[in-house]
Write a structure and sequence with these properties.
- The protein is rod-shaped.
- The strands form 3 sheets. The chain has a 6-stranded mixed beta sheet with strand order 5-7-9-11-14-15. A 5-stranded mixed beta sheet has the order 6-8-10-12-13, with no helix packed on it.
- 20% of the residues lie in helices and 33% in strands.
- The chain is built from 4 helices and 15 strands.
- It folds into 2 domains: 74 residues; 106 residues, 3 Solenoid (Pectate Lyase C-like).
- It is an alpha/beta fold and 230 residues long.
Amino acid sequence: MNEIEDHTPSVRLKGVGDSLWVTLDPESPMTTLKQELEELFKRMQHLAVNARVVIDAGTENGSEVLIRELEAFLKEKFSVAAVSPPPREPMSRVEKNRRRDVADAWYYRRSDVLMLAGRVRSGQKVTAKRHLVILGDVNPGAEITAGGDILVLGNLSGKAVAGQPNDLSAIVVALKFKPTQVQIGPVVAVGTPATEGVTAEFAHVEGDCIVVDDYIKANPFGRLPWPEVR
């Protein structure tokens, strides 16, 4: 059986703007890369002199040494002006958050949530450094405070203080939302009207006010492309 040889070139060259863009296979031997580069640049003759060259090795990991060696080769052989890797595109805020969460392994991280089961009775105070979850009711006269979000899987009839001291992005969620007072960061709302709905509601800050919405209809985190750490 005859072997089929792969003659796919390891180096490709094209003009992009005012630069020469070189795409190469980083797995190819250095001798092969230099040989193919030399053949391509010889065809360009004087156009290579003082040219700006971008070398795209397809990956950032380990490509710096490769690019530096080829830079020395091209400057010596063809007097190019500069050799550099492709410019990095600026990351959006969302992409930065995604990379942060992946790097932090958010699904393995130590919990920032204080979760309590049972009724918080009148006169009792519960404080959480970060987020607070109550699996039960919060009676009138009780006070719950958190540095982040508050989630009450029951009736919220007492005072809820979230986002302390200055986190205006915090929310307060309850299955039955009828608190005597809600505070998020420095913003306070007293006597939030009770509703007859059977769905969960949540309080959040809009402008300088606290607004209460149907949690299911508003779906405040529904547009996130992936789970984010809060």
